[in-house]
Predict the 3D structure of the following.
Amino acid sequence: MMKKFAGKMLFLCFCASSLSVSAVEASNRYRSPRNPERGIRRSTELIVLHTTEAPARSSLNKLSDRGEAHYCVTEEGMIYRIVDRDREAFHAGRSMWRGREDVDKYSIGIECVGYHNKPMGPVQIAAIRDLVAELKAMYRLSDDKVVCHSHVAYGAPNKWQKRRHRGRKRCGMLFAMPSMRRALGLKARPAFDADTGAGRLSIGDDYLNKVLYGRIDTMAGRIGTPKKQAAAAARPADSGGWFSRLIGSKKTPPEAPPAAPPAAKPRPVAAVKKPPPPKISAAKPPARPAKTAISSAVPRTVAELKARGYEIKGTISKRRTAIKIAGRAWNRGDTYSLVRGKVVSGDKIDASRLGAGVSVWMKK
Ligand SMILES: [Zn+2]
């Protein structure tokens, strides 16, 4: 009996750990006071990406007041939890997908600070990508279940449109474009619109329809490459967002009450986001273009690390994340990690590689 129980526990632990590859941490600063009024969502079949079409501060206040999204991702890569992810958020409005109306009832909504037709920066894209990846894994959703608000929104008949029509808004439109999908690590998108196909809706916006299902890609060449992302992530100005997101931590922590009472909300976002930049990083900016000079200065082996006065500060485990070991310096150019025998500097490392067993090296 005990043996059977122990076996079951072991199995459960295994499942839990394989699911919790999360690297995403969200802030509760703008958690909505509407949470208690919102019902628990019965199913989660889509992740809907929005663009706020407004700056961060006003967007966060409005989203929080009205409970209009589950998460909001700022330009600095800061992720704010608005409505608890198992509850319903009112983000999709008048909506339909494959014949089913009221998409709020079966989706997660992520607001991204920005505009439907303007490129986003690499740090923000990286944060959206991480959040989407975590939610996809959590709810077992395939890439084509990550849609834009404009995929699912529809308009009622009006002066210009006699029928119910797709194209009520272009919200989140850029997230359907091939270059953006690639940057977000998404290999597929919805292939067709079943609602206009079946005549439930008419096509009210030809251009939008071409963006969602055709080849229009106005973001091509305008968004960050992985290399640029690493450099941007290491820039002190952007570091607030990255620092506050744990690396290799467990699943998104349970929804907690807001850190500050709602009255404290109007504080400028920037004031919260930016911890003072680490001294060394300020004196030595990590993103330098020179090649030959640097490559000789960069240690490539353990012996070279030791020769330069580095020692192991700690080894990453389930309980001990890179940020716990190195603090804010985890992604600095002068912090190194030994990943499968390879020395990688903090400003070059992909956070997903900072798994158990990786040693973190810092100056003595
Ligand atoms: Zn929207």
